[in-house]
Amino acid sequence: SSMTLSPTMRHLNYIGQTTLNPDMSTPKQGSIGGAGVGFDTGWVNSITYETPVVQGFSGVLQYGAKESSAAGDKNSYAVSGSYNNGPISATLTYVNAGKTSAPSATAYTANEKVTDLGASYDFGVVKAFGQYTHIKDSTNNNANKDTIYQLGVSVPVSDKVNVMASFGSLKHKLNVASTSTTDRVFTVGADYALSKRTGVYGAFMNNTQTNLSSGQTALFGIKHTF
Asked: Following DSSP, what letter does each residue of the chain receive, concatenated?
């Protein structure tokens, strides 16, 4: 229903994108400065090779050139392997991302190594999801680390109603200060099909973070396929 309410999307991207106050002093309330990945959701001017699918197995290789000769700029590459066959789906991904000032200094902001494993199994009456991510950020010679996991289910209550729930946790360890901050998100939602092309949905999210009060978000909407 909404990427904003997805625990994994928040922990990989949104928390890390909101970093400092205008005076560059401390992280804004509700954010964890430096957490998550320090690159955009897509690499500009990258080269990608996708293997054929063989008995459910496939792979992807991607390379992104730094396109700059500035000191400290680095190339980026990623490799992933997937298996999709029957009720089972699984993907293992490794990313070695380099900080670079081109083509956009705001889209490639960290030197990071990211390992991600995700899997799902469709039992028919319920589809279960699981994901684990480890991020090591070595920007500026630091070794900050993120540990992220997510568990979720999707339940087809009927041919018109689908109920979903997801729980995710991020632990951000700041190596310099030897401290850690934890952010947890629990989301539950439902889709209801009014017709083949139109549906309504609703979701509720509870967010807790170390040393902060919990926050709640609710949304309702309608979607139509033209």
From this structure: --GGG-HHHIIIIIHHH--B-TTSSSBPTT--TT-S-SB-SS-TTEEEEEPPPBTTEEEEEEEE------TT---EEEEEEEEEETTEEEEEEEEEE---STTTTTTB---EEEEEEEEEEE-SS-EEEEEEEEEEE-GGG--EEEEEEEEEEEEE-SSSEEEEEEEEEEEEEETTTTEEEEEEEEEEEEEEESSSSEEEEEEEEEEEETTEEEEEEEEEEEEE--
pLDDT tens-digit profile of 142-172? Answer: 788 999 999 999 999 999 999 999 999 999 9
